[in-house]
UniProtKB/TrEMBL annotation:
Ranges of residues in domain Solute-binding protein family 3/N-terminal: 26-241
Top-rank lineage group of the source organism: Bacteria
This protein's name: Taurine ABC transporter substrate-binding protein
Matches recorded under CDD domains: PBP2_taurine
InterPro entries in the record: Peri-bd_TauA, Solute-binding_3/MltF_N, SsuA/THI5
Compartment annotation: Periplasm
Species assigned in the record: Pseudomonas parafulva
Family designation: Belongs to the bacterial solute-binding protein SsuA/TauA family.
Annotated signal sequence range: 1-24
Amino acid sequence: MNPHRTLRILSTLALAGASWIAQASDLTVAYQTTVDPAKVAQIDGDYEAATKASIDWRKFDNGADVITAVASGDVQIGYLGSSPLAAAATRKLPIETFLIATQIGAGEALVVRDAIKTPQDLEGKKVAVPFVSTGHYSLLAALKHWNIDPAKVQIINLAPPAIIAAWKRGDIDATYVWDPALGVAKESGKVLITSGELAKVGAPTFDAWIVRKDFASKHPDVVRAFAQVTLEAYADYRKDPQAWLANQDNVAKLAKLSGAKPSDIPVLLQGNVYPLAADQASALGTPTTQALTDTATFLKQQGKVEAVLPDYSPYVSAQYLPH
């Protein structure tokens, strides 16, 4: 072969490789302060190693802000709850759910002041929650379950950091939220109901990883590698939860990224379900599309979305699960 042609080919390949690397490294991931085993992999750099990308991790306080960032193109992969996900899909944003991160249990809860003895005592009280979050969905579902008119409760839209400040000042009587705000409220309040308990009465919530469709179509291997790291972290935890928690390094890393107190982490982890690879394939189908339909229906009843799509399957995909 002509040596000059060989050099041109190698140069072209090098440029193509450099282009791919540049595109892949332009990866911004939105995460939240939820408690899950994969945060250890996040701190350890496992995602960067597997995706061969330089990842800009950005912390967000709620799913609504994640959706705004993903919609603008600033974020390619994001972590959010089923309620903001349903709202985003209903708006027909170009996203796909590629992994169920958490089936929420004790990780989100309604915490009230000691003066509130029964659910009916919530009437007339100030309850803070980030609007269109899974906490918001769960709060409204709990009120419906207790036959309490939401109009009789002062529901206030606050982000988790603002909830912490409001709780400490005594400005609010209750909050439906996740850590670290959940832990702060629990220090002087009591849990009235958890998302796990609400799931048992027909109002399940979950967290998910989503990806922009344009990024996923260009870099399916990056998305697949991201999913694999997450699932390996889940498998490591679920293989022996007690041994995992006995490793103080794991607990310290999780506490650092979530903001939860190390002493709270065992309860928060064990209260949620982290689906393994075998569970994901079936979950990323009818169960998730039906859950999004049910959530969107509820949001429409509450005036949070204008319509419910006839089909949410275009926003859910199992194609990025590890082979």
